[in-house]
Amino acid sequence: MSGQVRLLIDGSKVGFGHQLEMVSVAYKRRSILVAWTWVKYKHGDSTWGWQYVLRQKGSHLVSRDGKEWQNLQSLVRKAGESAWLSATNLPYHNTCIKAYSYRMWIEEMFGDLKRHGFDLEGRHLLDTDKLLRLTLAVVLLYVWLLCYGHVLRSKA
Fold first, then answer.
1. What is the DSSP secondary-structure string of 9-69?
2. Is residue 91 domain-resident?
3. Host H or E run for residue 86
4. Rounded to two decimals, what is the model's pTM?
5. How many separate domains does the chain show?
6. Residue 28 is part of which domain span?
7. pLDDT in tens, the chain (156 residues)
């Protein structure tokens, strides 16, 4: 895995009708934004013809015949176990699991940028240009904090 760079692409709705679309680099169980833009929020994800892994809770409902709805959990063969089910266009189960594991790295960054850190969603900004400038400032500070943490850990 040495020498590989993993790019992670995702979007996150951040209050007041905007969604942050981003490309980040996987780094030590976090991700670092390298490119981003703000777009007016639209429901769902963009479809670009790429490979995907989408996770759904077992408590969500699905209709296989278009008429009768059932809990996704009922499709799990081991009764009593809670499950996260995935929909993917990847050809192999192991590839799906490995690809999805990087999703948690993005979630850590989302937490840092949003509710557990810089609170981007609490800014209530409506102007896209102001959101872009704020995001640049937050990303620069975020990268500085990651670097500072790396230095502290290397000294310990």
1. EEEEE-STTEEEEEEEEEETTEEEEEEEEEEE--SS----S---EEEEETTSEEESSSS-E
2. no
3. strand 84-88
4. 0.56
5. 1
6. 7-50+103-155
7. 457 788 888 877 766 677 788 888 888 888 888 888 887 765 544 445 567 777 777 788 888 788 889 888 787 777 666 666 777 788 888 888 887 777 777 777 777 777 777 777 776 777 778 888 888 888 898 889 888 988 998 998
Residue 125 lies in a domain: yes
Per the domain annotation, does 55 fall within a domain? no
Strand-strand pairing, 61-63 and 69-71: antiparallel
C-alpha distances in angstroms, 63 versus 67, 113, 140? 6, 36, 45
CB atoms under 10 Å from CB of 92, counted, come to 9
Q: Which two tokens stand for residue 133?
A: 């400038």
Instruction: Report how far residue 153's alpha carbon sits from residue 139's, in angstroms, rounded to the nearest whole number.
Output: 21
Contact predicate 53/88, CB 8 Å: yes
Helix 93-101 and helix 103-113: axis angle, to 10°?
20
Q: Does residue 127 sit within a domain?
A: yes
